[in-house]
UniProtKB/TrEMBL annotation:
Topology relative to the membrane: Peripheral membrane protein
One cellular component term from this protein's GO annotations in UniProt: PAM complex, Tim23 associated import motor
GO BP: protein import into mitochondrial matrix
Name of the featured protein: Mitochondria-associated granulocyte macrophage CSF-signaling molecule
Function, in words: Regulates ATP-dependent protein translocation into the mitochondrial matrix. Inhibits DNAJC19 stimulation of HSPA9/Mortalin ATPase activity.
Key words of the record: Membrane, Mitochondrion, Mitochondrion inner membrane, Protein transport, Translocation, Transport
Record has Ion transport as a keyword: no
Compartments, record wording: Mitochondrion inner membrane
Length: 125
């Protein structure tokens, strides 16, 4: 009886171990694909996405902006921040998402300005 119980336990551990290893491989593959996608957007942009927890596309969707215009970002930010204020029945969670989206878009604007300055400094050939 103990022999059969031990075999069942060993077999169960093997099945769970294989399933865990397969899930881990899938997670690594997904992370690699996401990193490749962020890599195409530039290293600084990918780092900003990691720090803020929002991708550029997510931030643009949250603030409903299609192009990176500081005026449009600020206008939409102010509106969404006021609408989601807790004192008027809004959601603190949504308000914090709006703030993070604005921070992410401002960081992207800063990165683009820095890249533009670096391009201007390069000697023309």
């Amino acid at each position: 009886m103990a022999k059969y119980l031990a075999q069942i336990i060993v077999m169960g551990v093997q099945v769970v171990g294989r399933a865990f290893a397969r899930a881990l491989r899938q997670e690594f593959a997904g992370n690699r694909a996401a990193a490749d996608a962020r890599g195409r957007a530039g290293h600084q942009s990918a780092a900003a996405s990691n720090l803020s927890g929002l991708s550029l596309q997510e931030a643009q969707q949250i603030l409903n902006v299609s192009k990176l215009s500081p005026e449009e970002i600020q206008k939409n930010y102010e509106h969404l921040f006021k609408v989601n204020d807790k004192s008027v029945g809004g959601s603190f969670y949504l308000q914090s998402k709006v703030v993070r989206a604005r921070e992410r878009l401002q960081e992207e604007l800063r990165i683009q300005a820095q890249e533009d300055r670096e391009k201007e400094r390069m000697p023309k050939t």
